[in-house]
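Postdoc handover notes: sequence design on the structure in folder B. Input tokens:
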């Protein structure tokens, strides 16, 4: 699916958990549309019905009406249904059933002004040592390059590759200010907060080339705080990782 085909409504959904989120968003929009049209009709009616006219005096006593009370109760009950019947089950199904570490691809995502750093463990499945004291302009992740385990680690800047049909667990963090990790086609959005590692997982059901954006104003260069997202087949991802390992070891 080409990245330019986003349609006029919601972006394409390539996530295994996106259908429930989209349904919730649609219900909320339709509900708000009904309220908007209803209130608009009511306001237009009151402007005409209670306009200033000859022989009509203003009434300052409050008007009692049972219909408006019943309508307010109905709206409140529907909002409770949306929260308890739709929102919480969708949230719980996503948050309470994360993939195991054995079946998932783990990626450390570090935001900074103004770039996204993606740190992969490499073929051995182990991350090399990192230390905050090693962080500098040339080494924003604080990697210890003398650690033997780090020899096959892969770091990519503003390029995010991962395989289709495989859970991905990202550890989202920030080096400086609050950013926001947002991939609309995967229905994923999470603030990247300095000093905190936030795990976020997702799984893609289709391959393609899409966009990652920062959804939080993060400074004068916020406009260029984006990354390319490549959802690969297993073979494509393996070839990309092998190429990056060879590139790092040259």
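Designed sequence:
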């Amino acid at each position: 699916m080409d990245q330019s085909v986003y349609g006029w409504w919601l972006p394409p959904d390539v996530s295994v958990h996106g259908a429930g989120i989209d349904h919730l968003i649609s219900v909320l929009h339709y509900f708000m549309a009904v309220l908007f049209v209803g209130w608009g009709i009511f306001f237009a009616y009151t402007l005409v019905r209670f306009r200033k006219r000859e022989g009509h005096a203003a009434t300052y006593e409050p008007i009692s009406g049972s219909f408006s009370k019943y309508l307010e109760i109905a709206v409140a009950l529907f909002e409770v249904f949306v929260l308890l019947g739709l929102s919480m089950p969708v949230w719980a199904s996503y948050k309470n059933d994360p993939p195991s570490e054995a079946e998932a691809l783990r990626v450390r995502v570090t935001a900074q002004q103004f770039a996204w750093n993606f740190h992969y463990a490499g073929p051995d499945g182990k991350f090399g040592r990192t230390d905050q004291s090693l962080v500098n302009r040339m080494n924003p992740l604080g990697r210890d390059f003398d650690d033997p385990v780090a020899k096959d680690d892969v770091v990519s800047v503003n390029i995010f590759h991962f395989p289709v049909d495989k859970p991905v667990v990202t550890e989202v963090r920030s080096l400086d200010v609050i950013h926001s990790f947002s991939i609309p086609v995967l229905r994923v959005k999470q603030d990247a907060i300095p000093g905190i590692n936030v795990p976020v997982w997702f799984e893609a059901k289709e391959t393609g080339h899409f966009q990652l954006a920062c959804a939080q104003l993060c400074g004068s260069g916020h406009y260029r705080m984006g990354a390319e997202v490549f959802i690969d087949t297993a073979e494509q991802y393996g070839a990309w990782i092998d190429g990056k390992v060879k590139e790092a070891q040259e």
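Context for whoever picks this up: The chain has two domains: 18-95, 105-249. Don't rerun without checking with the PI first.
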